[in-house]
Write a structure and sequence with these properties.
Blueprint (H helix, E strand, L loop, with lengths): L1 E5 L2 E8 L3 E10 L2 E5 L7 H11 L3 E5 L5 H4 L2 H7 L4 E5 L2 H5 L30 E3 L4 E2 L2 E5 L8 E5 L4 E3 L4 E2 L5 E2 L9 H4 L4 H13 L4 E3 L6 E2 L2 H25 L2
Parallel strand pairs: 4-5, 5-6, 6-7, 11-14
Antiparallel strand pairs: 1-2, 2-3, 3-4, 8-9, 9-10, 10-11, 12-13, 14-15
Catalytic activity: 3',5'-cyclic UMP + H2O = UMP + H(+); 3',5'-cyclic CMP + H2O = CMP + H(+)
Function: Counteracts the endogenous Pycsar antiviral defense system. Phosphodiesterase that enables metal-dependent hydrolysis of host cyclic nucleotide Pycsar defense signals such as cCMP and cUMP.
InterPro entries: Metallo-B-lactamas, NDM-1-like, RibonucZ/Hydroxyglut_hydro
């Protein structure tokens, strides 16, 4: 496990065997620590040890979305932290239960990536989040695209944005769904590229001072870089739409 700290945010990075980095985060509050995502099943020890090193209890567990590499240690942590409250978006709570059906108003493309099978996750969320909700110093920001209920969280004190898989920085910064050959996995697990771009623009408008993602290093002063990768993703979408039109001509 690698531990990095920036703007009061602790990044804990674990490695899967195929050099696949998975990060979760601690946000420090006066009453304890908020853990954002839980990484992999074996991450329980590293997460607990880091909290002990910081010297505060884990009081909240917040999930950006319900893919297995972000909820892997959830049950293990909840068994050790029965009083910690678990938060997830109202929409992705369905995925957490193993229900991958789509809502009528959503893009009718299959949800991708590894989501838990029905009954696999024992832990039930205590709080179902909506856009604009507050969790301590964090503002919840609905940012669907990677999954229908993906959420990001902005620290209202520092401006740091913990964006889950709305972006990736491993292999080069990219909007979720934009394929990076050096690290293609987040794109392959993205439900709606179009929705991802809209969410990326929403996050940019919040002027994040730091971008923290599920896969890759944290990025300081990210606005210009985010704007550039949004433009790149939009160009790719227009190209795909053009190819589709020509193929039906």
């Amino acid at each position: 496990m690698r531990l990095t700290k920036n703007k009061g945010l602790y990044q804990l990075t674990f490695m899967m065997p195929n050099l696949f980095p998975v990060s979760c985060y601690f946000v420090e509050e006066e009453d304890g620590l908020t853990l954002i995502d839980t990484a992999l099943p074996y991450s329980v020890k590293g997460i607990m040890n880091t909290a002990a090193q910081i010297g505060k209890p884990i009081t909240r567990i917040v999930l950006t979305h319900a893919h297995n590499d972000h909820i892997g240690a959830l049950d293990g942590l909840k068994s050790k932290l029965p009083d910690s409250q678990v938060y997830i978006s109202e929409r992705d709570a369905k995925l957490l239960k193993g229900d991958a059906t789509l809502e009528p108003q959503e893009h009718q493309t299959p949800i991708k990536g590894r989501v838990p099978k029905p009954g696999k996750i024992v832990t039930k969320p205590d709080v179902l989040l909506r856009d604009g909700d507050r969790i301590g110093s964090l503002a919840a920001v609905s940012s669907p695209g990677h999954t229908p209920g993906s959420m990001s969280f902005q620290d209202t004190r520092s401006g740091a944005m913990i964006a889950g898989d709305a972006f990736q920085s491993k292999g080069g910064l990219a909007v979720s769904g934009r394929l990076k050959l050096l690290f293609p996995f987040p794109a392959m697990a993205t439900w709606s590229k179009e929705t991802s771009v809209s969410s990326a623009r929403k996050l940019l408008e919040l002027n994040p001072t730091l971008l923290a993602v599920g896969h890759g290093a944290m990025l300081e002063h990210p606005q210009q870089t985010i704007a550039r990768v949004i433009a790149d993703a939009e160009k790719a979408l227009r190209g795909s739409a053009g190819k589709g039109s020509r193929s039906h001509a």
